[in-house]
Amino acid sequence: MSLDALTKAKRALQMQKELAERMKKIPSLNRDFGSKREHSQRVGEKEAPKVSSSDKGILPNPDLPASASAKAPIGVTSSSSALPASTSAMPSQIGLPHLPGLTAQKYEAVKRAQELAAKMGFRQDPEFAPLINMFPGQIAPDVTIQPKPSKAPVLRLDALGREVDDQGNVVNVPKVNTLSTLKVNINKQKKDAFQILKPELEVDPDKNPHFDARMGIDKLKLLRPKRMSFQFVEEGKWSKEADITKLKAQFGEAKAKELKVKQAQLAKAKSEPDINPNLIEIGERVITKEKPKETIPDVEWWDVPLLKSGTYDGITDGEINEEKIKMEKINIYVEHPRPIEPPLEAPPPPPQPLKLTKKEQKKLRTQRRLAREKDRQEMIRLGVLEPPKAKVKMSNLMKVLGSEATQDPTKLEMEIRSAAAEREQAHIDRNIARKLTPAERREKKERKLFDDANTLDTMVSVFKINDLSHPQARFKVDINAHENRLTGCAIISEGISVVVVEGGAKSIKRYAKLLLRRIDWTATVEKEGEDENDDDEEKPVNKCLLVWQGSVAKPSFHRFSVQECRTEMAARKFFADHGVGHYWDLAVNFNEET
What is the dihedral of CA 421, 423, 427, 432, to 10 degrees? Predict the structure, then answer.
């Protein structure tokens, strides 16, 4: 219902109250015009009555027929005679009650109010029933008032506290059973009806001769029920189900049922005390060597330093004299043996983090930056941080300040230029603060060029060169090994040269690139060949080959050195002295084609 309809309904109800107050004044008007009432009564006896009214003072209804009005009692008078002449002069064919101040607009308003009140569910008040029911077409409400009891009921009890009536008979009041339909109440009733038996100990611990009360064992704790323990899945359960599923898919349910019956027979045979050896599944025999049992010593090793004689001869019935014990060895301190870690396998390495692409790394960096900026804005909004000042420049002067820029432009320009200078200086200071010191710069360069010194593995590379006699090539091999912090040796022998280097992975990678790509080994041989008049056609092409590369537990050389050996036996002996004679064998027997 709209607000306009509610307002109209309130206004109509207020008008009803005003009309009711006016109706209360009608008896006073009847007393003033008593003579007119008697005259109207005599006229009513002579002439046919035109209107009939109820004994409640309800006004006549002009729509009723004359026969209905004739049935009214003679002693009831019409209240229309008590109204002023202006009201009685109103034409009766309109259908309005004869009330002072009642107009057609008010009549329609009251009628609408009645309809709205009926729709809204308001009941009609008996106090205003004569006013509401006086209009044509309305039916008087049947207001039923419950009669009050003549006297309150009396509760009578006998000597036993039972309720009795007036004659003294016992009143049987049936007991009301509250039948609960909720599941919670039903479960509660079942729980109350269920008798819980308290657990009892089979043997009283106080009667047990071995029971020690000083241990602080509570009998109530022994009576507590055991907690529900975990029920672990037996080993091989899921694998058996998987095998049965595979057999079903492969051969059908018949084969699967056969396998299931066979497994049940094996399980039953294993569980029985008298096991049938023919039903036991034969598996691989695992031979475990039992450790030889240690012989029980005559004297325990921890008692030897405390006994003077070094034996248990002085002990009788579990007691020993203090004279046979070295009392100076006993003190207030407790010796705790060093804990020994049990021999276990090394745990598996932790899972490696997922490597992201460049695009994903950039996206994550943007998300972190946005989250950091959002947190900063939230702290500024809460008042934890001071909001930043407006960044005013000469280009956006009028946009930021507006009308303030025209008041004192010279002063404002000086402030803007000083603020810009402060920002520039703060930028320079931040760069200086982030700038690395010479030592930090050196450490950063070392981290970039070389591996961590704490790494356990050491990379080793073995190179084979046909001719390393040229001093320029020899200098490059030697100086680059020192600069890359590599250890090893370069052995120059007749017809073959072997270079072995040890170090980090980054250094080995750079050194291998130097020997295999950057150095032109054929050029060094050509310069020597110009000075000599020997035939160069018989000599093989000078080149460098990578024989082997891998990792070792620890390096075999302390520094890098270049050695010249006259024979291959001397070169082999040099490697053997360092425990890596197989390096020379690998280089000599290496074939490029294989």
Answer: 60
Local confidence band at 126 (pLDDT 50, 70, 90 cut-offs): low
471-483 vs 505-513: helix crossing angle, rounded to 10: 160
pLDDT of 546 higher than 90: yes
Residue 130 pLDDT > 60, yes or no? no
Longest Cα–Cα distance of the chain, Å, equals 178
Cross-strand partners of 544: 465
Query: pLDDT (tens digit, 9 = 90+) per residue, 283-339?
Result: 566 666 777 778 888 888 888 888 888 888 777 676 777 788 888 888 888 888 788
Q: How many CA atoms lie within 13 A of 27 on its CB side?
A: 4
Which value, to the nearest 10 degrees, does the dihedral of the CA atoms of residues 213, 214, 215, 218 take?
50
For residue 240, the SS3 value is helix
| N-to-C CA span, the chain | 101
Model confidence at 366, in pLDDT bands (50, 70, 90)? very high
Q: How many CA atoms lie within 13 A of 412 on its CB side?
A: 16
Residue 569 vs residue 98, higher pLDDT: 569
Q: How far apart are CA 92 and CA 98, in angstroms?
A: 9
Instruction: Specify the 3-state DSSP secondary structure of 369.
Output: helix
More confident residue, 452 or 274: 452
Q: Are 205 and 222 in contact (CB under 8 A)?
A: yes
Q: What angle do CA 61, 64, 65 make, to 5 degrees?
A: 145
Span 394-416, pLDDT tens digits: 888 888 777 777 788 888 888 88
Position 583 pLDDT exceeds 80: yes
Read out DSSP for 176-193?
A: PP----SHHHHHHHHHHH
Q: Identity (one letter) of the amino acid at 3?
A: L
CA distance 9 to 531: 130
Residue in the block written with tokens 């970039």? 448
Q: In this model, does residue 280 exceed pLDDT 90?
A: no
**Beta pairing class for 487-493 and 544-552:** unpaired
Residue count of the chain: 594
DSSP letter at 436 equals P
Q: Which two tokens stand for residue 544?
A: 């460098």
CA distance 364 to 366: 5
Query: What residues contact residue 30 under an 8 Å CB cut-off, 6+ apart?
Result: 37, 79, 82
C-alpha angle 140/146/148, rounded to 5°?
A: 145
d(CA 100, CA 84): 7
Cβ within 8 Å of residue 57, ≥6 positions away: 23, 26, 79, 130
**What pLDDT was estimated at residue 340?**
82
Which pLDDT does position 72 carry in this prediction? 37
Q: Quick check: helix, strand or coil at residue 548?
A: strand
483 contacts 566 by C-beta, under 8 angstroms = no
Q: Beta-carbon neighbour count of residue 554 at 10 Å?
A: 8
Inform me whether the pLDDT recorded for 362 exceeds 60: yes
According to DSSP, the residues that pair with 492 across neighbouring strands are: 497, 564
Name beta bridge partners: 319.
316
Q: Is the separation of the CB atoms in 105 and 75 below 8 Å?
A: no
User: Are 298 and 313 within 8 A, CB to CB?
Assistant: no
Which token pair is 57?
A: 């003072």
Q: Edge-to-edge strand order for the sheet containing 560-564?
A: 544-552, 458-465, 496-503, 487-493, 560-564
**Is the pLDDT higher at 177 or at 512?**
512
